[in-house]
């Protein structure tokens, strides 16, 4: 009798475990997790098939448009006719939508954890320029840089793009001919250090989708003019000596709040945040040195902070918004 009870208990637990498995649908697909655990990343307009790891009695697939807010205010909408175990989505109509499936099996009803059809590999390239404070000035969208200094140019999406073609002038065609004089020979990485005058930019192909390549765009190239400008100070060796015109700035990189200034100055008549194209992005009047500056709305990248004291003294700082 005892043996029979043990057998029945094991059988009962097995039935419960089977129902638990049946009520826990999991979405899978060939690309899911290839770059990110809960995302499908498309190449161009290719399609992708989602399916559940188990078979159920009925299915209904849902989609929800992506939103930056948490919780997502957009509603879950049933996908018309999507009542089978699999669902085919594509990189044109379904980009930046969440998907989940609701299943039934007997008396159980359950839904899967959502996954996102992501366009991250589609992130268009953008260029960040890293200047040494005191060695440059921006004039009408161009940058005058002291001889002996250098400017670090980088693709803002290094994890997306693989092989780069760097240019010191705007090429005549894209993709450029291997003999195009604008090509900087041998430079194929995510970044390039410029030490000579030129009009710099790049063309790059994604690592995840090798056939998908993007041109930075000539409007996004940066013009650097190296020379012995009147704001430059040099050592006897010709090496640039940056002027002491920066303040304490923290945290750096910053995601939400930025603190800048020193107690000796107390207040600043004006604090301006400028992007690397020279555009004024944000400005604050009568800034107290210990007050936070909210930078949460800025897009990730490198920015210049110009602080003006009450007596007209200027400070320049660079910070990275992450």
Automatic annotation (TrEMBL):
Secretion system C-terminal sorting domain: residues covered: 249-320
The UniProt keyword set, sorted, is: Signal
Q: Supply the InterPro entries for this chain.
A: CHLI-like, Secre_tail
Q: Which GO terms describe its biological process?
A: chlorophyll biosynthetic process
Leader sequence segment: 1-20
- Highest taxon listed in the record's lineage: Bacteria
Provide the protein name. Answer: Por secretion system C-terminal sorting domain-containing protein
Source organism:
Chryseobacterium arachidis
